[in-house]
Structure formats: C-alpha cells, structure tokens
Here is the input.
Amino acid sequence: MLIRFKQFALTAAVTLVVACGAPAPDSASPEASSAAPTPRHADGLVNFDRQPGELGHWALPSQHSLVEIGASVAFDESGLLVNPEDAAKVAPFMDWSLALYRYRQANGLKDDPVNACISPAGPRHLMDPRGFRLIHDRNFDRLYVLFGGGNRNWRHMELDGRPLPNLDEVVGTYFGYSRGAWQGDTLVVESTGFNDRFWFSNGGLPHTPALKLTERFSRPDHDTLVYNVTVDDPRTYTRPWTAEWTLTWVPGDIEEQFCEQ
Here is the structure.
C-alpha cells in the first residue's frame, strides 16, 4: 500500500505541475525519449533482474490473455473476451478445444482452477498483475522465476545444456521441465512435461499433456521485457502458434499473494 501511495502521489504531483503551466519535458530530448541501457552481468550476459542497490520487478503486461500474433481481439483483465464472437480468432483451435473455450468464456470462467488454490502455470504467470522476477543463479546456471500471484510460487529453468527429459520417464507437473539456451541476447526456453490440471492462460484456453512451449525472453532496454511464446499442442490446436507481449520494470518489491482456501 505504501508503494502504491507513493506512486499515486508522484503521478498527482506531475499532473499538478503540468496543469499549473510549468513546461512539460521535451519529448525529443534524450532524457524523455530514451530508457537506460540493458543491464548486463560482468561477462556480458543480459541481466533480467535487479542491479546492485536496486529494487524492482516485472509487471504491467501489455496483454491479458494469450492470443495469436496478428489477431484483433480484445479482452478484459481476467481474460474474458469483450466480444464473445471473437473466440475463433484467438488461436487455431480444434473443434473440441474451441467448444470448451467458448463454454469457459460463457460461464464467466467460474471453473478456473485458481479458485480452488490450484496454481496457474505456463505463460499465465507472466500476466499476473502482481508481477514477477527473473533471477539468474550463476552457480547452478539456472533461471528462477518468482511470482507474486498464484499463491507465491516459483519456477526454474535449467541453462546448463542438459536435454529435456524423456516424457515416458517423468510425471507431468504444473510447470513442466524447462531447458534454456542463449541466442545472442535472447534467452530461448523449451518446456514440456505438463499436466492438464491448470489453465495456462487467462480466459481458459485449453491444453493437454502434449503441450510444448518455446519461450523467448529479451530485454532491449532497462525498462522493457519482451516475452514471446510459441504454443505447440497437436491434440488441442491445428498448428503451432505464437503470442507476444511486453512487460515494464516497476520499482519496488512484488506484492505477494497467498491462497487461503
């Protein structure tokens, strides 16, 4: 609450100054138009988390539900379609998955597993308004994703070159098994081995244990995270498809949520 009050007070102060006739910042000046450069570790790798002496996390997603790039579809913050007739535009559904998606939308998402304290997973965590952090453990070469929402869970991605497991030898989990590698300044993460007990997007998009995600994380400047994900579930969708959104660096700590049911 203190952080929100400070942000509100700062916004109000800026609005008051402009309203009283003080000159607004020159939008063409470097201070107004350019963000700070991308933070990096000592060896040059992109740092997706805080720098020494800094507090902050990723939040304010530019989208509220997974939707295929190029589709013109509007959602509210919970992932409900503004126009229910747009359902078929969201992704390349099979007949059964489109019918299930429409059913979940029509009943107002009342069957969402998070209502029973079952964690969301997959890309959905990266749309939670409480935000998240991406912490690179250089000792074990893995990336931890710490979430403010979804009952304060975390996920890890192995970056040490190990292969994905044989799915016949593992049990499907909520977060799957994730392996990542760098392609220039972009971290590419492949994940498989999911169960089907969670919703992997706001709005109730279906999936099966055949789901495979290919995620791409990039930080073009200090304040921007670009997230791109390709969804490949041949039991649910007629072809692989890709969604993308951005997140903003927000000063201060994550607002934590714990499920009490």
About this structure: The beta strands are 56-59, 132-137, 142-147, 154-158, 177-183, 186-192, 212-221, 224-232, 241-251.
